[in-house]
Amino acid sequence: MALRVEGFAIVSDDGMLADASGVMPRDLLVDADQRYLSDALDRAAILVHGRNSHEGQPHSRQRRRLIATRSVAAIAQVPDDPNALLWNPAGMPLEDAAVRLGVHEGSVAVLGGTDVYGLFLPRYDVFHLSRMPGLRLPGGRPVFPGVPEQTPEETLSVYGLRPGPQRLLDAATGVSVTVWRRCE
Ligand SMILES: NC(=O)c1ccc[n+]([C@@H]2O[C@H](COP(=O)([O-])OP(=O)(O)OC[C@H]3O[C@@H](n4cnc5c(N)ncnc54)[C@H](OP(=O)(O)O)[C@@H]3O)[C@@H](O)[C@H]2O)c1
Fold first, then answer.
1. I want to staple 127 with a disulfide (CB 3.0 to 4.6 A). Which of 37, 63, 166, 180 is the partner?
2. pTM of this prediction?
Protein backbone atom coordinates (compact mmCIF):
# COMPACT_ATOMS: atom_id res chain seq x y z
CA MET A 1 0.00 0.00 0.00
CA ALA A 2 1.34 3.47 -0.89
CA LEU A 3 0.07 6.22 1.36
CA ARG A 4 1.77 9.59 1.12
CA VAL A 5 1.54 11.63 4.34
CA GLU A 6 1.19 15.43 4.06
CA GLY A 7 0.79 17.94 6.89
CA PHE A 8 -0.88 21.36 6.64
CA ALA A 9 -0.72 24.17 9.20
CA ILE A 10 -0.72 27.95 9.48
CA VAL A 11 1.25 29.35 12.41
CA SER A 12 2.03 32.63 14.14
CA ASP A 13 5.53 34.12 14.39
CA ASP A 14 6.10 32.10 17.55
CA GLY A 15 4.94 28.83 15.94
CA MET A 16 1.42 28.69 17.40
CA LEU A 17 -1.73 27.18 15.86
CA ALA A 18 -4.11 28.62 18.41
CA ASP A 19 -4.12 31.03 21.35
CA ALA A 20 -3.66 30.27 25.05
CA SER A 21 -7.33 29.29 25.41
CA GLY A 22 -6.97 26.72 22.60
CA VAL A 23 -8.92 28.77 20.04
CA MET A 24 -7.61 29.45 16.54
CA PRO A 25 -7.84 33.27 16.18
CA ARG A 26 -9.51 34.80 13.12
CA ASP A 27 -6.15 36.35 12.21
CA LEU A 28 -4.97 32.85 11.21
CA LEU A 29 -7.97 32.31 8.90
CA VAL A 30 -6.80 33.94 5.68
CA ASP A 31 -8.84 33.35 2.49
CA ALA A 32 -5.82 32.62 0.27
CA ASP A 33 -4.47 30.09 2.76
CA GLN A 34 -7.90 28.49 3.17
CA ARG A 35 -8.16 28.14 -0.64
CA TYR A 36 -4.68 26.58 -0.74
CA LEU A 37 -5.77 24.11 1.96
CA SER A 38 -9.18 23.39 0.40
CA ASP A 39 -7.69 22.62 -3.03
CA ALA A 40 -5.20 20.21 -1.45
CA LEU A 41 -7.85 18.54 0.71
CA ASP A 42 -10.06 17.97 -2.35
CA ARG A 43 -7.15 15.98 -3.82
CA ALA A 44 -6.42 14.03 -0.63
CA ALA A 45 -7.65 10.46 -0.22
CA ILE A 46 -8.19 10.83 3.51
CA LEU A 47 -7.87 13.42 6.31
CA VAL A 48 -6.56 12.82 9.85
CA HIS A 49 -7.13 15.17 12.79
CA GLY A 50 -8.12 15.46 16.45
CA ARG A 51 -11.64 16.38 17.46
CA ASN A 52 -10.96 20.14 17.62
CA SER A 53 -9.14 20.43 14.31
CA HIS A 54 -11.89 19.86 11.73
CA GLU A 55 -11.25 22.11 8.71
CA GLY A 56 -14.92 23.27 8.55
CA GLN A 57 -14.99 23.96 4.81
CA PRO A 58 -17.79 23.72 2.20
CA HIS A 59 -16.56 20.35 0.85
CA SER A 60 -15.93 18.82 4.28
CA ARG A 61 -18.86 16.36 4.24
CA GLN A 62 -17.51 14.71 1.08
CA ARG A 63 -14.04 14.10 2.55
CA ARG A 64 -13.15 10.81 4.19
CA ARG A 65 -11.52 11.28 7.59
CA LEU A 66 -10.03 9.57 10.63
CA ILE A 67 -10.62 11.41 13.91
CA ALA A 68 -7.81 10.59 16.32
CA THR A 69 -8.98 9.73 19.83
CA ARG A 70 -7.95 7.63 22.81
CA SER A 71 -11.63 7.01 23.59
CA VAL A 72 -11.72 3.89 21.38
CA ALA A 73 -9.41 0.88 21.44
CA ALA A 74 -8.75 0.89 17.70
CA ILE A 75 -11.53 2.04 15.37
CA ALA A 76 -15.23 2.88 15.59
CA GLN A 77 -18.03 4.43 13.55
CA VAL A 78 -18.97 8.09 13.86
CA PRO A 79 -22.76 8.33 14.17
CA ASP A 80 -24.40 10.06 11.16
CA ASP A 81 -21.19 10.35 9.15
CA PRO A 82 -20.34 7.38 6.91
CA ASN A 83 -17.19 9.19 5.73
CA ALA A 84 -15.61 9.40 9.20
CA LEU A 85 -14.18 6.93 11.71
CA LEU A 86 -12.86 7.39 15.22
CA TRP A 87 -9.30 6.06 15.26
CA ASN A 88 -6.78 5.34 18.00
CA PRO A 89 -3.32 5.30 16.36
CA ALA A 90 -1.99 3.19 19.27
CA GLY A 91 -4.54 0.48 18.47
CA MET A 92 -4.35 0.21 14.68
CA PRO A 93 -1.79 1.18 12.00
CA LEU A 94 -2.72 4.04 9.67
CA GLU A 95 -2.82 1.74 6.64
CA ASP A 96 -5.38 -0.58 8.26
CA ALA A 97 -7.53 2.36 9.38
CA ALA A 98 -7.44 3.81 5.85
CA VAL A 99 -8.63 0.50 4.40
CA ARG A 100 -11.68 0.68 6.69
CA LEU A 101 -12.62 3.81 4.72
CA GLY A 102 -11.91 2.09 1.40
CA VAL A 103 -8.60 3.90 0.91
CA HIS A 104 -5.61 1.89 -0.34
CA GLU A 105 -3.43 4.60 -1.85
CA GLY A 106 -3.10 8.35 -2.22
CA SER A 107 -2.45 11.28 0.05
CA VAL A 108 -3.21 11.39 3.78
CA ALA A 109 -3.70 15.02 4.86
CA VAL A 110 -2.81 15.61 8.52
CA LEU A 111 -4.65 18.62 10.03
CA GLY A 112 -3.50 18.65 13.66
CA GLY A 113 -3.61 19.68 16.45
CA THR A 114 -0.26 19.64 18.25
CA ASP A 115 -0.06 15.99 19.29
CA VAL A 116 -1.50 14.66 16.03
CA TYR A 117 1.01 16.71 14.01
CA GLY A 118 3.71 15.42 16.35
CA LEU A 119 2.67 11.80 15.89
CA PHE A 120 3.38 11.97 12.16
CA LEU A 121 6.75 13.79 12.32
CA PRO A 122 8.70 10.61 11.48
CA ARG A 123 6.36 9.89 8.54
CA TYR A 124 5.70 13.15 6.68
CA ASP A 125 6.57 12.99 3.01
CA VAL A 126 5.58 16.65 2.75
CA PHE A 127 4.65 19.40 5.21
CA HIS A 128 2.95 22.61 4.00
CA LEU A 129 3.87 25.23 6.61
CA SER A 130 2.09 28.58 6.23
CA ARG A 131 3.20 31.58 8.27
CA MET A 132 1.31 34.67 9.37
CA PRO A 133 3.87 37.43 9.98
CA GLY A 134 3.39 39.97 12.77
CA LEU A 135 1.18 37.77 14.98
CA ARG A 136 2.37 36.31 18.29
CA LEU A 137 0.30 33.99 20.50
CA PRO A 138 2.24 33.65 23.78
CA GLY A 139 1.31 30.54 25.76
CA GLY A 140 -0.70 29.23 22.80
CA ARG A 141 -0.96 25.75 21.23
CA PRO A 142 2.23 25.01 19.28
CA VAL A 143 2.26 23.33 15.89
CA PHE A 144 4.60 20.60 17.18
CA PRO A 145 5.56 19.42 20.67
CA GLY A 146 8.81 21.24 21.60
CA VAL A 147 7.82 24.55 19.94
CA PRO A 148 8.59 27.41 20.76
CA GLU A 149 11.86 26.23 22.39
CA GLN A 150 12.63 24.89 18.91
CA THR A 151 11.11 26.58 15.84
CA PRO A 152 8.73 24.61 13.59
CA GLU A 153 11.37 24.80 10.84
CA GLU A 154 14.06 23.36 13.14
CA THR A 155 11.68 20.52 14.06
CA LEU A 156 10.96 19.65 10.42
CA SER A 157 14.67 19.78 9.69
CA VAL A 158 15.51 17.45 12.59
CA TYR A 159 12.98 14.95 11.18
CA GLY A 160 14.66 14.96 7.76
CA LEU A 161 12.55 17.40 5.73
CA ARG A 162 14.01 20.22 3.64
CA PRO A 163 12.31 23.47 2.54
CA GLY A 164 11.38 24.54 -0.97
CA PRO A 165 11.03 28.20 -1.90
CA GLN A 166 8.73 30.40 0.16
CA ARG A 167 5.57 31.30 -1.82
CA LEU A 168 3.57 34.42 -0.99
CA LEU A 169 -0.15 33.54 -0.75
CA ASP A 170 -1.57 36.92 0.24
CA ALA A 171 0.16 40.27 -0.30
CA ALA A 172 -2.16 42.16 2.08
CA THR A 173 -1.31 40.06 5.15
CA GLY A 174 2.06 38.69 4.01
CA VAL A 175 0.91 35.09 4.54
CA SER A 176 3.25 32.66 2.80
CA VAL A 177 3.64 28.91 2.50
CA THR A 178 6.79 26.81 2.39
CA VAL A 179 6.57 23.20 1.25
CA TRP A 180 8.96 20.92 3.15
CA ARG A 181 9.82 17.57 1.58
CA ARG A 182 11.53 14.50 2.96
CA CYS A 183 15.05 14.01 1.61
CA GLU A 184 15.78 10.51 0.31
N1 LIG B 1 -3.54 26.99 12.69
C2 LIG B 1 -3.74 25.77 12.21
O3 LIG B 1 -3.30 25.43 11.10
C4 LIG B 1 -4.49 24.78 13.04
C5 LIG B 1 -4.44 23.43 12.70
C6 LIG B 1 -5.09 22.53 13.52
C7 LIG B 1 -5.77 22.96 14.63
N8 LIG B 1 -5.80 24.29 14.90
C9 LIG B 1 -6.47 24.79 16.11
O10 LIG B 1 -5.71 24.34 17.23
C11 LIG B 1 -6.57 23.92 18.24
C12 LIG B 1 -6.25 22.43 18.38
O13 LIG B 1 -6.97 21.89 19.38
P14 LIG B 1 -6.43 20.66 20.27
O15 LIG B 1 -5.10 20.94 20.84
O16 LIG B 1 -7.55 20.34 21.19
O17 LIG B 1 -6.12 19.48 19.25
P18 LIG B 1 -6.92 18.31 18.51
O19 LIG B 1 -5.85 17.45 17.99
O20 LIG B 1 -7.89 18.82 17.55
O21 LIG B 1 -7.72 17.52 19.63
C22 LIG B 1 -7.07 16.92 20.70
C23 LIG B 1 -7.60 15.52 20.85
O24 LIG B 1 -7.08 14.69 19.82
C25 LIG B 1 -6.92 13.37 20.32
N26 LIG B 1 -5.52 12.98 20.20
C27 LIG B 1 -4.43 13.78 20.20
N28 LIG B 1 -3.31 13.04 20.10
C29 LIG B 1 -3.70 11.75 20.04
C30 LIG B 1 -3.03 10.53 19.95
N31 LIG B 1 -1.67 10.45 19.90
N32 LIG B 1 -3.74 9.39 19.93
C33 LIG B 1 -5.09 9.43 19.99
N34 LIG B 1 -5.80 10.57 20.09
C35 LIG B 1 -5.11 11.71 20.11
C36 LIG B 1 -7.40 13.40 21.76
O37 LIG B 1 -8.78 13.11 21.70
P38 LIG B 1 -9.59 12.39 22.90
O39 LIG B 1 -9.61 13.39 24.01
O40 LIG B 1 -10.95 12.14 22.29
O41 LIG B 1 -8.86 11.14 23.26
C42 LIG B 1 -7.20 14.85 22.13
O43 LIG B 1 -7.98 15.28 23.22
C44 LIG B 1 -8.00 24.22 17.77
O45 LIG B 1 -8.36 25.51 18.18
C46 LIG B 1 -7.86 24.23 16.28
O47 LIG B 1 -8.80 25.08 15.62
C48 LIG B 1 -5.18 25.21 14.14
1. 180
2. 0.97
